Amino acid sequence: MSASVPFYRKHQRSYDRGYRYQLAGRYSAGTSGGTRTRGLDWLSQPGLDPLPKRTKPSYLAVDRENQIIGYVVPMFRTSQEFAEGYSDHTRLRDTAAYMERCDRFTSGLEMERSEQIARKEAMRESAQRISFNKTLYEHDEHFKRMNEDSLLHVPEFIIKPRSHTVWEKQCVRLHCTVSGWPDPRVVWYKNNVAIDPLAKASKYKIESKYSVHSLEINSCDFEDTAQYRVSAMNVKGEVSAFASIVVKRFKGEVDTFLPAPRRSGVKDGPVSEYGITFQTHIVDNFGVSFGREGETLSLGCTVIIYPALHRYQPEVQWYRDGVLLSPSKWNHMHWSGDRATLTLTHLNKEDEGLYTLRVTTKSGYKTYSAYVFVRDADAEVEGAPGAPLDVCCLDANKDYIIVSWKQPAVDGGNSILGYFVDRCEVGTTHWIQCNDTPIKFARFPVTGLVEGRSYIFRVRAVNKSGISRPSRVSEPVAAMDPADRARMRGTSAPWTGQIIVTEEEPAEGIVPGRPRELQVTEATKNYLVLSWKPPGEKGLEGVMYYVEKCVSGTDSWQRVNTEIPVRSPRFALFDLAEGKSYCFRVRCCNAAGVGEPSDPTEATTVGDKLDTPSAPSKVVPTRNTDTSVVVSWEASHDAKELVGYYIEASIVGSNTWEPCNNKPVNVTRFICHGLTTGEKYVFRVRAVNAAGLSQFSPESEPVEVKAAIASPAPPYGISVLECVRDSMVLAWKQPAFIGGADITGYFVDYREVVDGVEGKWHEANIKAISERAYRVTDLKENRKYQFQVRAANIAGVGIPSLPSDTFLCEEWTIAVPGPPHDLELREVRGDSMVLLWKAPVYQGRDPVNGFYVDMKEAEAPEEAWRGVNTKATGNTFIKVKNLKEQESYVFRVRAQNQAGVGKSSDISEPVQAVTKPGTKEISVDVDDDGVISLNFECANMTPDSKFVWSKNYEDVDESASRLTVETKGNKSKATFNSPGEEDTGIYSCLVTHTDGDSSSYTISPEEMKRLLEISRDHKFPTIPLKSGLAVEMLEKGKVRFWLQAEQISPNAKVDYVFNDNVVTQGEKYKMNIDKNTGVVEMTMESLMPEDEGTFTFQMKDGKATNQSSLVLIGDVFKDLQKESEFQRKEWFRKQGPHFIEYLGYEVTPECCVVLKCKVGNIKKETSALWYKDGREIKADEKLGFTEGVLKLEIAQISKKDAGVYETVLKDDRGKDTSKLNLTDQRFKDLMNEVFNYIANSSTPLKITSTDQGIRLYTFVSYYNDLLPVTWHYKDSPIAFSERLKSGVVGDQLWLQISEPTEKDMGKYAIEFNINDGKGGLRRTVELSGQAYEDALAEFKRLKADAIAEKNRARVAGGLPDVVTIQEGKALNLTCNISGEPLPQVTWLKNDKELTSNEHCILRFESGKFASFTITAVSTVDTGKYSILVKNKYGTERAEFTVSVFIPEDVAPCKK
């Protein structure tokens, strides 16, 4: 084996410290005695052995059987040992001469330096030796690979991975060495599922170096307990090796050979770690929760740990039905430091159960539990059943996988016909249905799988309505035969927990024996499963199995698996005839042959061996809470493989059954939640196993859903209210829990205490007492006593309270009163509450004449007590106001008499000032009959709740009361029989069996007076009016009298009265009543003089009456009559074309004046005529008539447009006229409005420069010659001159300052003088400073440019663009020249200067005329000519083209 191990692998470091500890005594390591020079000599001597003659070093770790189990890394010894054994230079130091020299150097520094040099030399030699040997090895391997015979070979495990047992949170590493060519590909598997290190980088780390492969698992937990396989594969084949990892935690019994984990704490009591005891409280709990499949649900609790240590991390765990949950894609867990949250990301029925939060600290643990119910999602097909649940794989091999599931609770109203099983290969999304027909049995073997591949499964239920939704998928499982894995033997290693596993070498040439213990483990009508044990012989080579069958009663055996024998000792048979009996036997086989058959099984009839369970019985429901019921039943008899029970509930009379649980429970008692309070339910139960669901149990007796009744808790707070010689008055507080029913009474016991020794208890009362105060008699003076109290209700008598303090029975003689007692808090709100108490039993020397109330915050110190009232109150109640919301308070009461203030009462229970949701107040109401009542509604009623009314917090005796109380449902009404002043006071209502629901209403004398007035109005009602009688004009001059009532009924009646005479419907009077709006009206065609007088409407509606009058006499009547007549005329005018709005004008932003009027009742034949000063306006003056508006636009208004304008509308129905006077002042007003638009449109004054000076200007949208404008300089009007001028250019108004000087600097303004009474508009600009300097500079520049432009050289006219001339002709061109000084003239031809000669004569005469003459042109004169004039102000160029042509009659001659 060592010959096949590469050299460099012999120096590989060991991967597990356990190997070194176990086998350190067997490791051998060679050393080299050669020097560096000798190592170099080996290279120069061919044919010599490259290794020295000494023993060959070995770096392999072996066990007792000389099996290689790992590697060893040579470790350096101490410096002295190293110096003695690793170099020749070191040996020289052993000589006497060297020792003498060492004695001379006593410096420790020199010795250390020498040792370092020696170490470096030895390491260098070792590295060179390893490098050299590695080169030799690689050379040798190269030639091996070149050898055709040894080029390829299958992978081989030189060292296989070892099994380990480790503690939780530890790390573990598996490693192996593999050889093979080509280099094999290595894959690690966990339970036959390939490990992906990239998916869980923090969990797994895989390395491969020099054919050494390792898998490292960090922070092991329980899920890492598995069988791990490493597979090496190349083109020659594949081999595998196996190792197991077992992860243990400190829990339960620990193997004796393992080290005991460190435990904190002591056997009993809280645990202290470093002197700290942790207190854990779980608050803000989650309650019973309901969800639906597919939804997301979060459960959370707030965890308070005291003391709070920085960074202290408790152990937070979540359990479902007692099983620890781990984070997964279904469960997300979060701990924020003070809150634990579990999120169920996608609810399925598998998630239903009892969830428990467990918080563990060093001092113990706390838990909290609540149930989560998961309902079925809505079916995709109406009437389809619910989805199956808990799909898992019971058995797996290469031939089949048995899938099991649980039946759903909901069948959709029709019985389930069976189930379909689907499979999906891991890594794909393609689902394949495994069975063609539905199967009823909740287990099914899936075949047709590919060996070695992993699958997931799901199940669907089917009934005659359709198929359910699929279940949650199962966990992945590989189709692999367990017999394919090597048989392993394991022994426990030392404390490291390592398991050493080896394989037996198979024995060749031996036929295996008989299989053992063959039996039928599962039988249904669809399939049958056989199982057996392998033959007893060990070490057999490749054992496989043949299965044979025969019909019972015959001896004809048939082989079932004829083609391929199976390797697993389990086998599933299909296609057996249902109802027939079969026997089975199994044979072993291997390469040596087929062995003898096993003993046959008993005859087995094909059919379902598992029957459905019998129905449960004796279903008993019991009250639990106001929304839940406890259901118990008797288990099914002789039920096999029972999965659990389903419970259903139905409201009595509804005949509709709903499941209480959607996941089977395996107990016979279950709490059904989510029921409706006050309803009566019946329950039934059925059992379930793999064969199906049982029949329903008989229905239970009906039970009403409300809180169960129990005996009350013990009273508490026993105190003494009075003491005389032979009796004592005791008081106590009501129990916090009354058991769900009213307390019917209390029982008091007492016992004597003598010298600290308690005597026997004696009954103080035989008959229950209803008050929380009782006088215990027949006591002995100056004796000490203890007391206890028990409360009773209809459920029985509760347990007694704790014994009270020891009280001395002696007569009280103090002058001040005793303590008040029985403090009670009602009407708790966010800023107030009412405190009630009872007067002290012991009055003192004088009667009690008042009480003082003290209060403080519940957590405040004793010094925080403060008085609520500064003056003693004579009542036994008080309303405490101005409280801080959300704060808790406690109270105490002290009584006073003439002698002083007595002892305070016991402190009340803390009460938080908060207004509870749904809190309502008492309301007062007066009905239609005038009956006054107080009404109170409670939203938190329970079936046992009652309304208790009181006046001034004393219960009302209805028989002798002035109140009548009526209660219906959650509403109560207290009606006053004969309300009066004696009924004033504070009325309150308390609802029993609630969380203190109560309210009060104060009826003061003023409030009672107000209520009596309302009552009187209701008894003798009047019809309320929104508005009294009024008059208005209608069209055509009609007069309408009307009023409006708040509300009237259809039976209301009205009398119309004029001057005490009733008028009726007729030609003159028209009456109408609108019952919906309450409007009563009467109309008259017109008013005549005889209609002057008083009009009255008298109304009656049932008992209610009312009237309203209107007086029309004198001037009021005359004005109304004139208005009526005018409206009548207007109506007739509007029958033809008429003016709706008479003629007017408006000025547009563009300063146009538009005359317009609005007309109505027009048609196509209607004509509109415009007149000015009596003359008709022509049509070309923009006469417009569209959309009922008639317009006349005056674009640029001037004085000539003043006058009287008139518009006439007429057609065959009549005509109408409208005039507008625009003369004198009206015209001035119009022009002022135009001027105002112009002024407002002006832009700010700006400064610009010209070649003459500086110009100030503004623009307006439109300029009118009549616009009055004034320019100002330094707020004074400007006197214009030749140097200062103003003007208008288009819409620009400007002021020109010619030849400006510094005197012209200052403020300039332009003012628009508008006589509209509002003053003019002024625009200003400051011509000074930089603005003046810039303008002046620009003026000078422009002036200079103007001069230059005026005097620069110019060519003015006379020259054409193109001259076409016949050859031989004379050409004479003349142009004008200007410029000062006189320009210089230059003529050019084709950009070359011309000079005057006989052929081309150039002249410049009188300084104005330049002439160009060619005496006789020829073709050579053709070209581009130009004249260039130039002086100091500029240059200008004029161009022309001369084209010379030859006549056609001359041209041939020349040719």
Describe the structure in your own words.
- The protein is mostly beta strands and 1455 residues long.
- Helix content is 11%, strand content 42%.
- The chain has 11 helices and 104 strands.
- Strands 7-6-10-11-4-30-29 form a 7-stranded mixed sheet, with no helix packed on it.
- A hairpin with a 3-residue loop joins strand 31 and strand 32 (527-533).
- The radius of gyration is 60 Å and the shape is extended.
- It starts with 16 loop residues before the first helix and ends with a helix.
Task: Set down the secondary structure blueprint.
Layout: H1 17-23, H2 36-44, E1 60-62, E2 68-71, H3 79-85, H4 88-92, H5 96-104, H6 108-146, E3 153-159, E4 163-167, E5 172-181, E6 185-190, E7 193-194, E8 204-209, E9 212-217, E10 226-234, E11 237-248, E12 279-283, E13 289-292, E14 297-306, E15 315-320, E16 323-324, E17 331-335, E18 339-344, E19 353-361, E20 364-375, E21 389-396, E22 401-406, E23 418-425, E24 431-433, E25 443-446, E26 454-463, E27 466-467, E28 477-478, E29 489-492, E30 498-502, E31 516-523, E32 527-533, E33 544-551, E34 558-559, E35 570-574, E36 581-590, E37 593-597, E38 604-605, E39 617-625, E40 628-634, E41 642-651, E42 658-659, E43 669-672, E44 680-689, E45 692-693, E46 703-704, E47 716-723, E48 728-733, E49 745-754, E50 757-758, E51 762-763, E52 773-776, E53 784-793, E54 796-797, E55 807-808, E56 821-826, E57 833-838, E58 850-857, E59 866-867, E60 877-880, E61 888-897, E62 900-904, E63 911-912, E64 923-926, E65 932-937, E66 947-951, E67 954-955, E68 963-968, E69 971-976, E70 985-991, E71 998-1003, H7 1005-1019, E72 1025-1033, E73 1039-1045, ...
Parallel strand pairs: 4-11, 13-20, 97-104
Antiparallel strand pairs: 1-2, 3-5, 4-30, 5-9, 6-7, 6-10, 8-9, 10-11, 12-14, 14-18, 15-16, 15-19, 17-18, 19-20, 21-22, 22-25, 23-24, 23-26, 26-27, 26-28, 29-30, 31-32, 32-35, 33-34, 33-36, 36-37, 36-38, 39-40, 40-43, 41-42, 41-44, 44-45, 44-46, 47-48, 48-52, 49-50, 49-51, 49-53, 53-54, 53-55, ...
